[in-house]
Amino acid sequence: MASFRRIALIGKPNSREVDASLKEIRAFLAERGCQVQTEGKGADLAVVAGGDGTMLTAARDLVPLGVPLVGINQGRLGFMTDIGHEDMRAGLGAILDGRYVIEERALLDAEIQRDGKSMLRTVALNEAVVGKGAQGRLIEFDLSIDGEFIYTLRADGVIVATPTGSTAYALSAGGPIVLSRARVFSCVPVNSSDDHHAIVVTSDARVSVTDVAANGGVEVVLDGRERVRVARGEVVRVRRHEQPARFVRFGEKQYTRILGKLRKEGSGEEAPALHEGPPSARFVLKLLEYEGSLTQQEMVRESGLSVRTIRNALTYLLSKGFVTKEPNLRDARQDVYTLA
C-alpha cells in the first residue's frame, strides 16, 4: 500500500466555498506531516475540491503524471467524488492510514484524421461527442466499429462514452448505466430521427465517424470542455487511451456507489417530471451541476447544443421548478440559471 506524503491540492477556481475547504484541508494535512503543493508534478496524491467538472479537468491533466486522485465533493451530486465536505477530515485520515483501494478508469483517445494523417489527438474521461454545434439542423454521418460499417445516422450527434461517462451526458441521452470495471464503451445517438439505439462495444473497439454532412459544420466536444471543429472530409476515430485515470476509493461496492447516487438524484416528488421531459433538459441539469450557474449563451457555448434546444430545455426546467433564474448583474440582457 503506497504512502501518500506529497499531496497536491486542486480546487474549482473562483469559489469562496472551495477556497475555504482547501484552507481547512491544507491545515489538516500539515497536522499529519504531509508536504502540500499546488501542482501535480512530483505528487503522490491529488486532493481535488469541487464537483465532477473539477474532477474531470484534474483527471485529464494528471493522467500523464500517473498521480491518483480523490475528490472532496462541493457540488450537488458528485459521481466522481468520494468524500463529502463534512467528512473530509475522516476520509482523508483513512487514506493516510492506508484504508483505501486504487480504482483505474478507462479514458478515450480521440483523434481527427484527414487523408489518413493525424490532425489532432486528445483524451477524455467521460465522453467524446461528435455533434452539430450551435446550428439548428440535424447532421448526417456514418458510424463504423473496427472498420465495419454499422449504420448511417441523422441526429444531433453521437456520444462515445466510457463507463465513467455513462452516468453523464450519455445517460441523459438514453444510454445505459455501465459500471466502472466493465471493459466496454457505449455509442449513444443524440435525438436521432432514425430508429437507432445505443450500442455497447468492447473497450478494445475502434469507433469511427465518417462522411459527416452538415451545412453549419461539426465539432467534437471532449468532456464538455475541449471543443474541436471537424472539417468536411475529416474522420473522427475514438479508442481506449493507453493510460487509465487512477482514483482513490474506500472499497465499497460500485453498485452501492453508482446506483445509490442515481436513486438520490431521482428522489423527491418531482423526479418523474424530469424523466418525462426532453433529454436536453436532463443534460442542462448535468451542465449546471458541473459548471455552476450559467447564462443561456454560456450553456450554448459549453454544451454545443442549439439556442432553440437550450431555450426549450430551460423553459421545461423552470416550469417544473428544477432551476431558478435571476438577472445577470454583468449583463442585464442575460439571465443566470441555477439549480433549484
SSE diagram, text form:
Layout: E1 6-11, H1 16-31, E2 35-37, E3 45-50, H2 52-62, E4 69-73, E5 83-84, H3 88-96, E6 101-105, E7 108-114, E8 117-124, E9 127-131, E10 139-145, E11 148-155, E12 157-161, H4 169-172, E13 184-190, E14 199-202, E15 207-213, E16 218-222, E17 226-230, E18 235-240, E19 245-249, H5 254-266, H6 271-276, H7 279-291, E20 294-295, H8 296-303, H9 307-319, E21 323-328, E22 331-339
Parallel strand pairs: 1-2, 1-3, 3-4, 4-5
Antiparallel strand pairs: 6-19, 7-8, 7-18, 9-12, 9-16, 10-11, 10-15, 12-13, 13-14, 15-18, 16-17, 20-22, 21-22
Which short descriptors sum up this protein?
340 residues; alpha+beta; Rossmann fold; Tumour Suppressor Smad4; Arc Repressor Mutant, subunit A; 3 domains; 6-stranded antiparallel sheet; 22 strands; 36% strand
